[in-house]
Structure formats: C-alpha cells, structure tokens
C-alpha cells in the first residue's frame, strides 16, 4: 500500500516538473514570437513608398542623425543655387531669391539688399544676362555646433556677347531649425558671406 502511494507521489512530481518545463517552453516561444514580430513591424515601418509617374518607388526611412551631413550639404548647395542661378526675368529672380532667403538669416538678406541697391538685378534684366552657379565642393565641420562650412564653386555670367567665369567661395554656419515646406532640411545659414568672387576667364561668344 505504501509503495503505491510512493509511486503516485513520484508520478505527481514528474507530471508537475513536466508541466513547469512545458509552461517555460511556451513562455519562451511566446516571447520569441513577440520580439520577432516587433522587429518585423519596425522594419516594415521604415519602408515607405513614393508614387512617381504612376509607379510606386520604395524608399527607406532613417534617423536624422544618420543623414545630417548629407542634408546639411544639400541645404548649402540649394541655397547657393537659388541665390546665384538667375535669368533676366524679374519674377524668376524674385522666386529664386525668395526661396534662398528662407534658407538663411539676415546676412543673406543684407547681401541681397546691397546687390539690389547697386542695380545688379536690374542690370541682369536690362542686359539679358543669365547667371549660373556650379558647385565644386563643400567643406563642413561637424565637430562643433553651429556647423561651420565653406562653399567652393564657379559662377558664370552669360552676356549676349561674352561669358565671364568667376571663382566663388563663401562661408557661414548652419543652425538646426524646424522643418517646413520652404525649408525641408531644417537648417538655417547664419553669418554668411562671400570671401572670394574674382574673375577667372572671359570668352567671347
């Protein structure tokens, strides 16, 4: 009789141990599934689709810190494009300068006011002169904030009779601001100035 009780107790212990092991295994599997599902959802959320010309293009979303240098350089490039890429059209000049001034502080506005007061933009229109800018490189210091930069490029002034090429070097600082439709990168150029703009060559047309 006592032997039967002993067998029952041993069997109960085995069943209880097996139950604990089964519960632990189930909990491990559930936790693993939850973690993997979270990873998959997070990865899926990083993928976005852009509709262009009726086609869905896949893109990957990233943290700002991953692309801050790329965005900063593009901000500087676009500012110089809008400020210096001009044609003899008062509406286009106003549009480009307006977009450029969204990307910089009062230092760029002062440069524009000085050029405007000297009749520079009026001369472009009356003389049928176009102005192009080509970027060579951008040196950006990300070690200190605000970020200091130096822009190197070429400026072409296209007249009806000649094409003048000028060296263009500017410098300034970048400060982070809120993003908007007019300032997609969320930077503001401060203390901007032109340090070199001498003539390189002139070609007759």
Automatic annotation (TrEMBL):
Keywords: Membrane, Transmembrane, Transmembrane helix. It comes from the Bacteria. The chain crosses the membrane at residues 15-35. NCBIfam families: Bac_Flav_CT_K. This is Conjugative transposon protein TraK.
